[in-house]
Amino acid sequence: MVGAIPEIDPFASALADRHDAELETRFEQGVYALHTVIPARETRGSMRPAEHADRALVLRWVEAFSTEVLHESGPDGARLERSVDARLAGGDAGFALWEANGRPVSLVGFSGPTPNGIRIGPVYTPPEHRGQGYGSALTAGVSARQLARGRRFCFLYTDLGNPTSNAIYVRIGYERVCDSRELALVPRPGG
Fold first, then answer.
1. Which has the closest alpha carbon to 28: 156, 160, 121, 157?
2. Domain total in the chain
3. ∠ Cα 36 65 11 (to 5°)
4. What is the pLDDT of residues 119-142, one digit of tens each?
5. Angle at the Cα of 120 (from 97 to 3), degrees rounded to 5?
6. Residue 187, in any domain of the structure
7. How far apart are CA 103 and CA 98, in angstroms?
8. 39 Cβ contact list (under 8 Å, min separation 6)
9. 124, 61 in Cβ contact below 8 A?
10. Range of 112's domain?
11. What residues pair up with 73 in beta bridges, in sequence order?
12. How far is CA 191 from CA 21, 22, 38, 116, in A?
């Protein structure tokens, strides 16, 4: 279960007591919102929408993101494919790629529109392309495009254990608004 801190804690404790279980913290995230983009530093390359021809790459990178950032051990392949296919079909969700030297080097998704905003994520740059500003430029570009389409704000979730990504989002205008915690019910020993 996932929820805002501190509201999730009493709810989760009551649920754990009801099921004779203990709580295990799986993940803590910061929730950030952006109303105005601060342009990222000049970065070689450019942004483009991901297309169906990019499907294999997008699937690979979203799976890598899930493993590396969300600590999932092999996300459900069929569910992942359905989610990626729906985003690649267009509408209020999708992916963008940053290309440098004619090849994709970073990916940013957007989905989950609300009446006033939209969620940005996943944000993924393969290790061999990190440190070049690709993810920052792409996140700033996707966020600016969503604001230009009439969204009042963009929001995203970050791993609080990754100070690098948190600092990058702040540099392009995101502000931390609250924290979130993912908890799991675990059977009590001997229970």
1. 160
2. 1
3. 75
4. 999 999 999 999 999 999 999 999
5. 145
6. no
7. 8
8. 140, 172
9. yes
10. 32-178
11. none
12. 8, 10, 53, 46
What string of DSSP letters covers 78-132?
HHHHHHHHHHHT-SS-EEEEEEETTEEEEEEEEE---SSEEEEEEEE--GGGTTS
- Give mean pLDDT, residues 29-54: 95
Would 89 be classed as within a structural domain?
Answer: yes
pTM of the model: 0.89
CA 99 vs CA 25, 43, 106, 107: distances in Å: 37, 10, 7, 9
Tokens at 100, concatenated:
């440098």
Amino acid at the residue 145: R
Determine the length of the chain.
Answer: 191
